[in-house]
Amino acid sequence: MHGRTLRHLRVVILLVIINLAWEGCLVFEPWDNENDPVMYLHCTMTEENYHQLFKSTYYNSWFGINICEGDSVVDARLRIHGNVTRKMFKKSFQYRTFSHSVPRKKIRSTVLSAFRENSCSHYRYAVYFFSKTSLLITDHQPVRLYINQKDHGLYLKLEKIDEHFFSRRNLPLSSLYKMNARSYFGFRYGTVQQNFDKKIPDDDWSFDDLIQLNRIIEEGITEERLEFLWHWLDSSSALDYYAISRLIYNWDGINNNVYLYYNSRINKFQFIPWDLGHTFEGSTFFVDVENGLVEQLLEIPHIRSSVENRMAHYFDYPRDSVALDSIFFHTYDHCQHDIFADSTNNDCIEALYSMRSYIKGVRDRLREMGYKE
After folding, report:
1. Quick one: DSSP state of residue 224?
2. Most buried residue among 26, 62, 119, 240 by CB atoms closer than 10 A?
3. Are 107 and 98 in contact (CB under 8 A)?
4. What is the pLDDT of residue 30?
5. Residue 112: which of 165, 160, 63 has the closest Cα?
6. List of residues 6+ apart from 294 with CB closer than 8 A
7. In the sheet that 196-200 helps form, which strands lie side by side, from edge to edge?
């Protein structure tokens, strides 16, 4: 007990020195953990802006903020992010910092996402599965967020899919679209412009490439017409995306949270997963959520077989079980110390049990389908 008290005293003295030398970037950590893998993100802004940030009339307003990242302090702009989390007690945020690697905009955007499940394990475990494929995936980092020395709990720092995302991966800057909520491929439920938002390039609002893809889908996908679809759509990207989405029950990513990137290097569209918080839920496995495309693909026997084979290939129950526990306990202490945990009426351990139960159900369902581990 005496040793712990001395350690805390040393920490307090050090923090006072840091605060005097570096005003506006006070580091305050509520517990002592030398091997803590979670990054601490400290932000400062005026108290007036801090209170206005959470007022409904300021949802879309950007506020000036200083962000301490490691040994550096950067100027940024911060605002509330997302539609659903704006109604929650624990908000999500987006901040922008200047970047010299993208000279055209010189802006880098980052999302700080909060989820109903406070350990953020659903999202991170979903990324674990998608990372088994060759799909493009955003980088993420668990962070403990402080604004004006106030602890806002555990967040996921997510790389936003923008010009910087493609620049970092040495990919060409081409058309990028995001599917709108409850939208469909084809023209049956509205125009392409109604079903998709074009994100980049900023100076090109033509939907011609996506309209061509949707026209093929609208005319019907059959065995004989697959070659027309694969001319515009990367088959490996599509089949891997739908295989993992069915495996982890990524229902929100079938006709809402998914990006379509036209890779001009191969002249085909590719899927990029996004917002993976709604995964591993429920007890019904491999439900076919319709979006105008996936149900047509699954009607073709060899395509359905390919998707199911990929699901079995990417699922390894012993290793995936160990990975789940590792991902969960990576942030467990922060989940327990999250002041918003009771506000969202969520138990982190219950979330772990639920996800364990889900992947056991996946294992059993694959066995019923004739796949062996």
Report:
1. G
2. 119
3. yes
4. 34
5. 160
6. 242, 254, 288
7. 196-200, 176-179, 258-263, 268-273
Provide the 3-class DSSP secondary structure of residue 52.
Answer: helix
What DSSP state is assigned to residue 4? H
Beta-carbon count within 10 A of 273 CB: 24
Q: How far apart are CA 271 and CA 261, in angstroms?
A: 6
| pTM of the predicted protein model | 0.85
Q: Look at phi and psi of residue 109 and say left if phi exceeds 0, alpha if psi is from -120 to 50, else beta.
A: beta
In tens, the pLDDT along 232-281 reads 999 999 999 999 999 999 999 998 999 999 999 999 999 999 999 889 98
Q: Please spell the DSSP secondary structure of 258-288, one letter per residue.
A: EEEEEETTTTEEEEEE----S-S-SS--S--
**Taking the CB of residue 311, how many other CB atoms lie within 10 A of it?**
22
Distance of CA 147 to the CA centre of its chain: 22
Query: With b meaning 16 or more CB within 10 Å and e meaning fewer, what string describes 164-197?
Result: bbbbeeeeeebbbbbbeeebbbbbeeeebeebbe
Residue stretches of the chain with pLDDT short of 70: 1-36, 56-59, 69-70, 83-87, 98-108, 116, 340-347
Share of the chain above pLDDT 70, in %: 82
Mean pLDDT of the chain: 84
Q: Please state, in angstroms and rounded to a whole number, the distance separating the CA atoms of residues 356 and 246.
A: 17
Q: With beta carbons less than 8 A apart as the criterion, state whether 66 and 43 touch.
A: yes
Chain Cα centroid distance, residue 288: 22
| SS3 (DSSP) at 106 | coil
